[in-house]
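Researcher: Quick one. two chains, 919 residues in total.
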Amino acid sequence: MTLTFGNSATVTRALTLEWRADGSLWAMRGDEERAVSVRRCFPWSEPAQHLSLCDADEEEFALLRDPVELDPRSRAALELALEVAGFVFEVTRVLEIDEEVEIRRWRVETRQGARTFQTRLDDWPRTLPHGGLLIRDLAGDLYHLGRPELLDRKSRDLLWAFVD
Amino acid sequence: MSTQQQLDDHIIERYTAQPTRLPPELRRLIEHAWHGAPVQLYALADLDQSLRLTEAWLALGPRHLAVARRESSGWHVRSVERSRIEAIREAPGLSANTLTILGASGEPALVLLRYTHRQRRAFENIRFVLEEQVNGHPRELADGEADRLYAESVARPIRDAQALVSGRQTAVIRRLLGYLKPYRRDLTLGMAAATVITLVSLIPPYLAGYLIDRVVRPAQAGTLSLGRAGTIAALAVAAMAAVYLVKQAAAYVRLRLMAILGEWVARDLRDQLYEHIQRLSLSFFSRKRTGSLITRVSADTDRLWEFLAFGIVDVSLSLVQLLGLGTVLLSLDWRLGLVMTLPVPLFCWVIYRHGENISRLFIRAWRKWSRVTDVLSDTIPGIRVVKAFNQEDREIVRFGERNQDVTAEFNRIHASWTTFWPLLVLGVHAMTITVWIFAVPRLLGTGAHLPVGTFVSFLLYTTMFLAPIDVIGQMARTINRATTSAHRVFEVLDTEPEIRDAAEPVRLEPVHGRVTFEHVTFGYDGVRQVLRGVSFDVTPGELIGLVGPSGGGKTTIVNLIARFYDVSGGAIRVDGVDLRRLDTGHYRRQIGMVLQDPYLFHGTVVENIRYGLPEAPLDRVVAAAQAANAHDFITKLQHGYDTVVGERGHTLSGGERQRVSIARAILHDPRILILDEATSSVDTETEREIQEALERLVAGRTVFAIAHRLSTLRKASRLFVIEDGRLVEHGTHAELLAKAEGKYRHLYELQLQLQ
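Model:
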């Protein structure tokens, strides 16, 4: 397994991951172990690879190039962590897009439930490398539309001005 | 409840579809479980463990915290004693954050909650208090603030982004019209002139009909003598000429008066707005984008001018004109009148719908236009990088693609309106044809009698329909645009400065420069403190070096000394008087600032040096420049002290700008001087010259100097090491170096190693 530890020194040592009772993901390597959080280095262009494991002080404990290099239990633990770290709202229907003074108001249905959010008038949805749209609201929450062209007619109609 | 909190509650209710408060029954349950202790802070955890939207609450009390989850049987509340907490972790994600509160090592987490970014500020407030407790600095929270802090933390991103002015659209328009009051006379005249234009416009078609029916046809039929017919015709033509003259005279009065009146109102708004902006506190400017504020003073007031000068009159008179046309047509011939008037609402609706559709096209075009301007704002300032990496061709292709894209969108807009308007006019022509279809048999004697003149009048009136229909169809958009601008302007005018003078402010004459901090705490928002109980006493003439890691609170200290903000707790005294009791304007005249990136205004060198004292004699200007080591380079400039330095002084180098700013401070002769990284962005030789200038500047004043290069502070009377909002060490350079485990010594040694 090829992992980059600490200050990007590339070494080959076993990294294991597990969830513990304290509700944290722990990374272990030799005698070292730390509670870590996972960050995708390329959340939109290559989400499955290059994962950064950081400790509570935001220091990188390990850079994992590909999860397939982990043992199956560690990989399962990592997948759960990735689910939380990579969570964004998945929009399934667009119900309303309205313009008000300086902001655009969106009412949508997501896989997680109904949601209303706002964006600045000049903040446009971002087109992602593999297609799809990403909208960032005023609070910083993200809304993903994987295949806008597959949404219902009304949603597509409302989204028309925002999709290439 | 404060107005601010009412506004925040309104925002939460309207925009987030989440509770504006901790549910009262839940609060009672929690406080009951805590034996009456109050909830001091709370936050909504809006994601469950499987990342679906939910409603769970985290509440913090003086000795407990509680987690409440809504279950089918009601609220399930679990309390935890705060004394059990050993650590707090927050793992931020793209949209889901996880807060883990831990007890003794190896035990399950005491609390594990997930929430979106919308709730993050509220959670950060709680996290801050708990971390302070864990770090041994327990923080007492005031009771009764929980609702305000929660509402503020959730509503703030929306409040900062949007110009929310209390009141409905009609109230905003009424308020806007209030600005016309001083110009009532001109307004009345302008409106009267516009009414005259509208009414006299109805006369020529009527006269045409009258001439045909009462003069031409009787004369042709021989029932009216030619002489009499000629006289009446001449009178009618003269009347027609008079009508046109009156109409154009009224048009002149209307255009002139209303245009000027609109300018006056826009000028009043601009003056009021700019004056108010100058009085607002720095916190307002940190919340609003500079571009947005500039737009409010320029483009928004300009749009309001357009609305006040023409929009109001056009809309109201178009209504009058349509009403007048309808009445005249129905009274001339009710059958043909109905043909012409019945489709009018349909036309208004069609124009309105077209406006809505085209605005969608515009949104799409603006989005693509922003992609074009993105390339420009990237590559023009960054042209050196483009050239250094030989990427000119790639950038040309990128621009070309986006340019092509936006052109296609604009062409789509042109395709839309160029199709719509001919079709609309065709619709109006269809009305005319319908009038012909109904009229011709009657003209030929079938059905009800229709005089030829009346028919001609009708035809002439039909040509007048299109303009008012267009204005009314676009009325909603005109009013929306104006009220949007009015909202943005009124939002600034309604913002109260946070720094206000006391009822009877004290003037220190003279200011000696003693500065005392007494247990000063400060936070920019919420409960997070940037300064945590800082105390010190600086005597007049001392040079205090503020050192420590970035984000520790050094700049906050100097911002508080300049009274850009007021302290949250404790007090700052100058010569023994609380800063909040001082006359702020007078006090600030005693303060000088030299910043890392000195700000010069567009103007000459001499104007910039004299910025604080515009009347200062030239020999003092030269003396100040000499003391600042600036005189030599200034005299070498082509126009000497009269050289225009350009926007932000861009024609000068960084070191030159800095020396001009030091000359400005020397001339200003402040009693308290603030140097914020004054030499950090220049080369060694320039730094030496600036250092010399600064040594002359600091003599005889109380000075607070922030510097990362510790060697520049060796001559400081004392050094204050600020870390994590606290004064952790103080003493002279030698005293602090003598401390074996000292923070200053550690920083100093690190810098020596780097050299």
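Chain A has a mean pLDDT of 88.
Researcher: Thanks, that's what I needed.
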